[in-house]
Amino acid sequence: MTVIGIDPHKSSLTAAALDADGTARVTRRFAVNKATGPAVLAWASQFDEALFAVEGARGLGRGISQYLLSQGHEVLDVPSTLSMKARVLHTGGGRKTDAADARAVGWVAQHHEGLRRVVAEDHAEILDLLTRQRDAFKCERTRALNRLHDLLRDLIPGGVPQGLTLTRARAAVRTVRPATAVARCRRDLARDLIGEVARLEKLMDDYEQRIAEELQATGTSLMELQGISTILAGKILGEVGDVRRFRSAGHFASYTGAAPLDTSSGDNLRQRLNPGGNRRLNSVLHVMAVCQIQHGGPGREYYLKKIQEGKTPREARRALKRRLSNVIYRTMLKDLSPRPPAIS
User: Fold this and answer.
1) Number of other CB atoms surrounding residue 191 within 10 Å
2) Which of 102, 117, 132 is at the close of a domain?
3) Considering 42, 72, 191, 244, which has the largest number of Cβ atoms within 10 A of its Cβ?
């Protein structure tokens, strides 16, 4: 089988065809336009049983990956971190070209058994797009509130308390009686920012409604878990996609960054915090853990048990996050299992 590694960029992509022993047979560069997909397939038709591997199939490689998939070809998603390590291992240095990167992508596909197979975009992709857009609006709202806080500090002696909200900002601005032209300018800017915050909050509410509608179409039961809101459930499904691509709960926990890293050496058995993994999912686990700790239930009981065993609050929370990762994994698998027909 010929493995074709593809290194995509914004305006071009480079493909390298590798034999079974990893030898590069031929390399070609393509300009990215409407004819790129057919051109890649026409070039690859000279090889028998071609397997495509694309670096960053959910990023710059999304277009070519989805096109190849739509034409009935199997496509593997190669993380850039793996292709970089493969390139350094094979070349013995940091020499980097598009052709070398394409070959490295192919080498990873030949030797790594845990690569994600690209699937057609579905509800998971829609949820990913919607939740990321809502997060962007939330960040803009936070920046607008911070600027508003600065203006009110100069308009009102002592400023306003922390935790500024739209209602509190409107009430504060109504009390302002500017005595100078500069103060009037600050008041007008504050009013504009209040309108901007109101607009962003309306968009956030609209997107939350759209996310809820998409979640209903998936039939997920994630929101039945304590601490999982509509937004968090959308983030989970958007990031994970098909949970069956993970071999076990441990594999899923490693992906979320909830599983500790083994750093043992000789007789010293050690583990440390995993700084990698999917940080969006790790953030979801953190919010879920904090919510369960603050309220009664099995999560809080597990947390208190770890505290009694001598763990610090931070260590106990990490242990709970690891346990909750297993709960989410099992819930998503259960949602995919066929349900027995209803008895009439």
Assistant:
1) 16
2) 117
3) 191
CA gap 329, 235 in Å, rounded: 14
| Nearest one of 109, 31, 29, 38 to 74, comparing CA atoms | 109
Domain that holds residue 98: 2-117
pLDDT tens-place string over residues 67-119: 999 999 999 999 988 888 888 887 666 678 999 999 999 999 999 888 888 98
Structure tokens at 254: 């490693």
> Rounded to an integer, what distance in angstroms lies between the CA atom of residue 315 and that of residue 268?
20
Instruction: Note whether 306 and 319 are within 8 A (CB).
Output: yes
Residue at 234 is within a domain = yes
pLDDT digits (tens, 9 = 90+) for 176-218: 999 999 999 999 999 999 999 999 999 999 999 999 999 999 9
Phi-psi domain of 146 (left: phi exceeds 0; alpha: psi -120 through 50; beta: other): alpha
d(CA 52, CA 17): 9
